[in-house]
Amino acid sequence: MDEKKLIENIRNGEQQAFRQLYDLYQNKVYNTAFGFVHDTADAQDITQDVFVELYQSLATFRSDSSLNTWIYRIAVNKSLNHLRKKKSSSFFFKIRKSSEDGQKQVIPEIADNNLTPAGNLENLELQQQLQRAIDALPEKQRTAFILDKFEDLPYKEIALVMNTSISSVESLLFRAKQNLQKSLLAPWKER
After folding, report:
1. How wide is the angle at C-alpha 160 spanned by C-alphas 75 and 150, nearest 5°?
2. Nearest C-alpha neighbor of 176 from the set 132, 152, 154, 145
């Protein structure tokens, strides 16, 4: 079924059509969200939020861009909003934690044991280092990098999702790779 017919069927209240949309895009949305949040439960929550928004706003979809682009844009925005909320609540939790016992302390991050086999500590450390480096990228660079490397979207599609030009995407990806290289090689240069 083509995109226009699928949208028309959903707008006409056909639940099977929305189920088909969900089946087509659920993995893409989840993978995009996971690329940002690195947490299974959070990525599942974001995926659910994306499809709720799709269901509520599909009637206003104007077809200015492809459905694929629109869905990625919603997934990226939901993921970034989630990170912003988590960052601000984490900040307040850390302040509250340090004021309760009168001493400032850093609350350690909990590693996701699902990333690697339990016995492979070196791989886990490398993945965590890469994850921290990607998370430290400026927002636009991080978004372009995740859509390029994790979702394998063409530059044109990334430009549409990010509402920018292809040359801007190329520039963002170039700077992201430079920043990652600096960040990941810094510990080795200190030795």
Report:
1. 50
2. 145
pLDDT in tens for each of the 191 residues of the chain?
Answer: 688 888 889 888 888 999 999 999 999 999 999 999 989 999 999 999 999 999 898 888 887 788 899 999 999 999 999 988 876 554 444 434 444 444 333 323 334 444 434 445 666 777 788 888 999 999 999 999 999 988 889 999 999 999 999 999 999 999 999 999 998 887 666 65
Question: Are 65 and 21 part of one and the same domain?
Answer: yes
Query: What does the alpha-carbon distance between residue 39 and residue 41 come to, in Å, rounded to a whole number?
Result: 6
Evaluate whether residue 102 is within a structural domain: no
Domain shared by 73 and 126, yes or no: no
Quick check: is 9 in a domain?
A: yes
